[in-house]
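Hey, resending since the last one bounced:
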Amino acid sequence: MPAAKSAAKKPAAKASKKAVQSPALTSALAHTRALLAIPSATNRVEDVADYVVAHAKKRGFKAERQADDTLHIRIEGTDKKRVVGYGAHLDRIGLMVDELFDDGTVKISSIGGLYPGHVMDGVTASIQTKNGLEEGVIFHTDTPIHKVGGEGFEKRPHKWKNIRLRPDACIGCTKKNGKDKLKALGIRPGQLVWLNPMLAISDEHQTLRSRWLDNTLGCAVLLALIDTWGKAKPRFTVDLIFSAAEEVGMGGTSVIRPDMTDFVAVDTSVGEEMEDLNNCAIKQKAGK
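The structure tokens again:
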């Protein structure tokens, strides 16, 4: 019998090309990771401000710091007649403990503009105590749809009085021991609650997914610019402004200098159509 022909070899699959990140993008992503790991809320931005000050010093720039932790960093350019300001705010939306309940849950309220409806169900957060962070889950008192029915679920009130946070350590507590457990953990009214950003960065798809990015992304962009301008001067002089209380006001304008000729707010915006964003995008490259 004739020898069987060997099966034709299939061509090897081509390895997918991994997208190459620019140094600026790599820097911005690294700063995003670092900043999101630091708790931050309006008027409680000390640790984030420390990070920015230390990084500016590392790159050879001095950060002027006000009592409220608003920062101003001037980077001299080749053209000293034109001074362009770039501003971002250090604070993120946060929460605060309002009241302790007998069942081991706590009532919370927002610091900054935060809607208490469906967007909060299942969000993990941590209460800042003197002993450290106590992580838990935020939920609506009428969360289970099998408890209130479909119609009741849609009509449930979206108010902070219906929102609770249950620390993990209080799972299984009853009305007989819940409040005592909260107190034993060091949880008290007035303490800050940090929201878990749930950060996910995909190198394959070149995407970043997270919650509560306002305005961590803006700060990361400015820090990446510091990295760039630490190696080469910008064409014009730059003022970088990091404000501390944007979520409840417009703090930060006190560090704007009279010689500033232009100002660009680097902030986070959501909900617009991409076409609109592209039409209004700033075409001017930073530093050119």
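The chain has a mean pLDDT of 81.

Sorry for the duplicate.
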